[in-house]
Design goal:
It contains 1 helix and no strands. It is mainly α and about 140 residues long. The longest helix is centred in the middle third of the chain and has 134 residues. The chain is rod-shaped and about 185 Å long. The model has no long low-confidence stretch (mean pLDDT about 90).
Protein backbone atom coordinates (compact mmCIF):
# COMPACT_ATOMS: atom_id res chain seq x y z
CA UNK A 1 0.00 0.00 0.00
CA UNK A 2 2.83 2.26 0.76
CA UNK A 3 4.15 1.92 -2.72
CA UNK A 4 0.69 2.70 -4.16
CA UNK A 5 0.49 5.80 -1.98
CA UNK A 6 3.95 6.75 -3.08
CA UNK A 7 2.97 6.29 -6.75
CA UNK A 8 -0.16 8.41 -6.17
CA UNK A 9 1.95 11.13 -4.51
CA UNK A 10 4.43 11.04 -7.37
CA UNK A 11 1.58 11.19 -9.89
CA UNK A 12 0.07 14.13 -7.98
CA UNK A 13 3.44 15.93 -8.03
CA UNK A 14 3.81 15.11 -11.72
CA UNK A 15 0.32 16.47 -12.45
CA UNK A 16 1.03 19.58 -10.41
CA UNK A 17 4.32 20.20 -12.26
CA UNK A 18 2.59 19.46 -15.56
CA UNK A 19 -0.10 22.04 -14.69
CA UNK A 20 2.63 24.56 -13.82
CA UNK A 21 4.42 23.88 -17.10
CA UNK A 22 1.11 24.22 -19.00
CA UNK A 23 0.45 27.55 -17.23
CA UNK A 24 3.96 28.72 -18.14
CA UNK A 25 3.38 27.60 -21.74
CA UNK A 26 0.06 29.52 -21.84
CA UNK A 27 1.81 32.59 -20.43
CA UNK A 28 4.63 32.21 -22.98
CA UNK A 29 2.06 31.74 -25.75
CA UNK A 30 0.29 34.97 -24.70
CA UNK A 31 3.64 36.80 -24.60
CA UNK A 32 4.57 35.43 -28.02
CA UNK A 33 1.17 36.55 -29.35
CA UNK A 34 1.65 40.05 -27.95
CA UNK A 35 5.19 40.21 -29.37
CA UNK A 36 4.00 38.86 -32.73
CA UNK A 37 1.36 41.59 -32.94
CA UNK A 38 3.93 44.21 -31.95
CA UNK A 39 6.36 42.90 -34.57
CA UNK A 40 3.57 42.84 -37.17
CA UNK A 41 2.71 46.46 -36.29
CA UNK A 42 6.39 47.39 -36.62
CA UNK A 43 6.54 45.56 -39.94
CA UNK A 44 3.56 47.58 -41.16
CA UNK A 45 5.24 50.82 -40.05
CA UNK A 46 8.52 49.70 -41.60
CA UNK A 47 6.77 48.91 -44.88
CA UNK A 48 5.01 52.30 -44.79
CA UNK A 49 8.34 54.05 -44.14
CA UNK A 50 10.06 51.99 -46.83
CA UNK A 51 7.32 52.89 -49.33
CA UNK A 52 7.60 56.58 -48.38
CA UNK A 53 11.39 56.38 -48.68
CA UNK A 54 11.06 54.84 -52.13
CA UNK A 55 8.68 57.63 -53.19
CA UNK A 56 11.09 60.27 -51.93
CA UNK A 57 14.03 58.48 -53.55
CA UNK A 58 12.22 58.36 -56.91
CA UNK A 59 11.34 62.06 -56.64
CA UNK A 60 14.94 62.84 -55.71
CA UNK A 61 16.21 60.90 -58.72
CA UNK A 62 13.77 62.76 -61.00
CA UNK A 63 14.96 66.09 -59.61
CA UNK A 64 18.61 65.00 -59.93
CA UNK A 65 18.12 64.02 -63.59
CA UNK A 66 16.32 67.31 -64.29
CA UNK A 67 19.07 69.25 -62.50
CA UNK A 68 21.80 67.48 -64.47
CA UNK A 69 19.95 68.18 -67.71
CA UNK A 70 19.58 71.87 -66.82
CA UNK A 71 23.24 72.06 -65.79
CA UNK A 72 24.28 70.53 -69.11
CA UNK A 73 22.08 73.02 -70.98
CA UNK A 74 23.45 75.91 -68.91
CA UNK A 75 27.01 74.74 -69.59
CA UNK A 76 26.31 74.60 -73.32
CA UNK A 77 24.70 78.07 -73.25
CA UNK A 78 27.55 79.44 -71.13
CA UNK A 79 30.17 78.07 -73.51
CA UNK A 80 28.27 79.50 -76.48
CA UNK A 81 27.95 82.90 -74.81
CA UNK A 82 31.62 82.88 -73.83
CA UNK A 83 32.55 82.09 -77.42
CA UNK A 84 30.42 85.03 -78.61
CA UNK A 85 31.94 87.31 -75.96
CA UNK A 86 35.47 86.30 -76.98
CA UNK A 87 34.61 86.96 -80.62
CA UNK A 88 33.10 90.35 -79.69
CA UNK A 89 36.19 91.22 -77.66
CA UNK A 90 38.48 90.29 -80.56
CA UNK A 91 36.35 92.36 -82.94
CA UNK A 92 36.28 95.32 -80.54
CA UNK A 93 40.01 95.00 -80.00
CA UNK A 94 40.56 95.10 -83.74
CA UNK A 95 38.25 98.09 -84.08
CA UNK A 96 39.95 99.88 -81.18
CA UNK A 97 43.38 99.18 -82.63
CA UNK A 98 42.24 100.61 -85.96
CA UNK A 99 40.74 103.65 -84.21
CA UNK A 100 43.88 104.11 -82.11
CA UNK A 101 45.98 103.95 -85.27
CA UNK A 102 43.74 106.57 -86.90
CA UNK A 103 43.90 108.78 -83.80
CA UNK A 104 47.70 108.51 -83.73
CA UNK A 105 47.79 109.43 -87.41
CA UNK A 106 45.44 112.37 -86.74
CA UNK A 107 47.62 113.51 -83.82
CA UNK A 108 50.75 113.31 -85.98
CA UNK A 109 48.96 115.27 -88.73
CA UNK A 110 47.78 117.86 -86.17
CA UNK A 111 51.33 118.25 -84.84
CA UNK A 112 52.61 118.76 -88.37
CA UNK A 113 49.82 121.28 -88.99
CA UNK A 114 50.68 123.02 -85.71
CA UNK A 115 54.33 123.20 -86.76
CA UNK A 116 53.32 124.65 -90.13
CA UNK A 117 50.93 127.15 -88.51
CA UNK A 118 53.54 128.12 -85.96
CA UNK A 119 56.04 128.81 -88.74
CA UNK A 120 53.42 130.83 -90.61
CA UNK A 121 52.59 132.74 -87.43
CA UNK A 122 56.28 133.51 -86.88
CA UNK A 123 56.55 134.57 -90.53
CA UNK A 124 53.45 136.79 -90.23
CA UNK A 125 54.79 138.22 -87.00
CA UNK A 126 58.11 139.06 -88.66
CA UNK A 127 56.34 140.67 -91.60
CA UNK A 128 54.14 142.60 -89.25
CA UNK A 129 57.20 143.78 -87.37
CA UNK A 130 58.81 144.83 -90.63
CA UNK A 131 55.65 146.66 -91.72
CA UNK A 132 55.33 148.25 -88.30
CA UNK A 133 58.93 149.38 -88.30
CA UNK A 134 58.48 150.88 -91.76
CA UNK A 135 55.44 152.77 -90.58
CA UNK A 136 57.11 154.21 -87.64
Amino acid sequence: MKSEERIIELLAEYLQKTDQILDQMKQTDRSVGIMSRAIAAQDVKYNEHAARFNEINLKFNEIRVEFQSEMKQMKTEYQSEMKEIKTDIRNLSSEFQSEIKEIKTDIRDLREDQGIMLKELVSISKRFSVVESKLS
